[in-house]
Design goal:
By secondary structure, the chain is α/β, with parallel strands linked by helices. The protein has 7 helices and 10 strands. About 30% of the residues lie in helices and about 15% in strands. A 7-stranded parallel β-sheet has the order 1-10-9-6-2-3-5, with helices on both faces. Strands 4-8-7 form a 3-stranded antiparallel β-sheet. The longest helix has 23 residues. It is globular and about 45 Å long.
């Protein structure tokens, strides 16, 4: 058996947030050492509020435990074809839950939203966002895939992540960095998403999955053959030991896959 993802389970959200903070800061500092920046992709759902708990708690901060947002480059792992102030926008969610809560003395990260001029044409929206990535990660012909320092992802109850859904043709996309989807099984239908090769190419990939509603899909992903073909399972397979799951104990109740004790 090859190398496997890391599964961490915590009794409560505060324990999860504290360890997630340590993990993100380790990834941040490694990014700073590599290229003086921290390039991170984030998705939506409950993730931004968990990030706020992890990153904005002043009681956690110490000299070796500093979040330097001024050197963060934040991209979206997926986004809905909606105005940036729409309730369905992942940008708005991140803004409301995290960005607007960052204290002035912590400075603001550089955030890369979609170009809303192209909301009516998701292919063009995806192409424009791929251009945004190219500007940060070098021209596509000189870099086969962008390498994020960290991708912070969620897991849907159906095993989807980003806007990569079970059995969808986009799971086979191997060329584009950013792909359009017009028939998302979860509304809104029109979205863009990082492709699976971009996700698994990241230096580190973290899933945050909490709550009893995730129990069945977590068991599927970690303990069954079919679960390996779900989008989250494919990320586990492609990312192997680069993947870490931060969960609470109710989300992994009944999961046989071994937990790790510490980072």
């Amino acid at each position: 058996m090859g190398k496997q993802p890391n599964l961490y389970a915590f009794d409560d959200l505060s324990g999860l947030a504290a360890t997630l903070r340590t993990y993100i800061i380790q990834c941040q500092n490694a990014g700073f050492e590599r290229h003086g920046l921290f390039r991170v992709a984030v998705s939506g759902g409950s993730l931004p509020s968990t990030l706020a708990k992890a990153l904005l708690d002043p009681s956690q901060s110490g000299p070796d435990d500093m979040v330097d947002f001024s050197k963060w480059d934040i991209f979206f792992a997926d986004e809905r074809a909606m105005p940036l102030d729409h309730p369905d926008s992942n940008y708005k969610l991140l803004q409301d839950e995290l960005l607007d809560k960052i204290p002035v003395d912590m400075r603001q990260p550089k955030v890369h939203p979609i170009d809303v001029k192209h909301l009516d044409d998701v292919q063009e929206l995806a192409d424009q966002y791929q251009d945004t990535l190219m500007q940060s990660f070098a021209a596509k012909d000189s870099v086969k895939l962008p390498i994020f320092d960290l991708l912070l992802l969620g897991c849907g109850p159906d095993g989807h992540t980003c806007s990569l859904f079970p059995n969808h043709e986009l799971l086979r996309e191997s060329d584009a960095w950013v792909a359009p989807i017009e028939d998302s099984p979860k509304p809104p239908a029109k979205r863009i998403t990082l492709s699976l090769p971009v996700v698994t190419h990241g230096i580190k990939i973290a899933f945050i999955a909490t709550g009893a509603g995730k129990k069945d899909v977590m068991k599927q992903i970690f303990d069954t053959e079919e679960g390996r073909n779900l989008p989250c399972g494919l990320v586990n397979e492609g990312g192997a030991e680069k993947v870490s799951w931060f969960t609470d104990s109710v989300a992994v109740e009944g999961v046989a896959f071994p937990r790790r004790g510490s980072l």
